[in-house]
Amino acid sequence: MIFEPVPPYRPSHFRVRFATSPWELRACAALRRQVFCVEQGLFRDRADGHGDDRDAIDAHAIPICALSTLAGDPDAVVGTVRIHAAAETPGTWWGSRLAVARPFRGTASLGAGLIRLAVSSAHARGCTRFLAHVQEPNVALFEALHWHALARLDLHGRPHRLMRADLFAYPPLLDPGHGLVALPRAA
Fold first, then answer.
1. What is the domain count for the chain?
2. Order of strands, sheet of 180-182, starting from the edge strand that comes earlier in the sequence
């Protein structure tokens, strides 16, 4: 009997929503640590040499997750971002720590879905200006999603751009707990 190799499982869709359950929150933190500390080598001055990307913003930020699905149910966190209102500037919100698990980085809809939910849910909460520090390799994605570069800067030893979302492209999303569906890109 000859068995054909089974292709790796690819979810039919992803659910992007606010991370609320303890397992989602833990998985978001673990994914951020994997991407920013282990893979990119940022924040090495902390803890075990790999570092930890958590900071004071995490105390009041809203974490967002992209979940792979198995038979329609959430299976694993494969992407994350966080949003928060700027205390010093009413109406200004920030997005940060956008991360997608390595096996899912070719799935363009994940990054776009995370960005869309981040900006639209902040817009529903009174955001009048949404900003992010975007790593240079990701600028094209943000520009395609109606973001505009405001300045070049260096953060954590890497080139970034300060970017601003065009809120007209992001209508307010009133139910971010339910979130949105992101479909994988066709192979």
1. 1
2. 147-155, 158-165, 129-135, 92-100, 73-85, 62-70, 14-18, 180-182
Kindly state whether residue 64 falls inside one of the protein's structural domains.
yes
Which pLDDT band, with edges at 50, 70 and 90, does 175 fall under? confident
Does the reported pTM lie above 0.85? yes
Q: Tell whether the model's pLDDT for residue 34 goes beyond 70.
A: yes
In a domain, 9, yes or no: no
Reading the block at residue 163, the tokens are: 């970017």
Establish if 21 belongs to a structural domain.
yes
85-142 confidence digits (pLDDT tens) = 998 999 999 999 999 999 888 765 899 999 999 999 999 999 999 999 999 999 999 9
Residue 114: domain span = 14-182
In the structure, what pLDDT confidence band is assigned to residue 147 with cuts at 50, 70 and 90?
A: very high
Q: Is residue 6 part of a domain?
A: no
H-state helical runs in the chain: 22-32, 108-124, 139-144
Q: Give the start-end residues of each E strand in 21-171.
A: 62-70, 73-85, 92-100, 129-135, 147-155, 158-165
Pairing of strands 92-100, 129-135: parallel
Give me the residues paired with residue 158 across strands: 155
Please name every residue paired with 82 in a beta bridge, in sequence order, or none if there are none. 63, 96
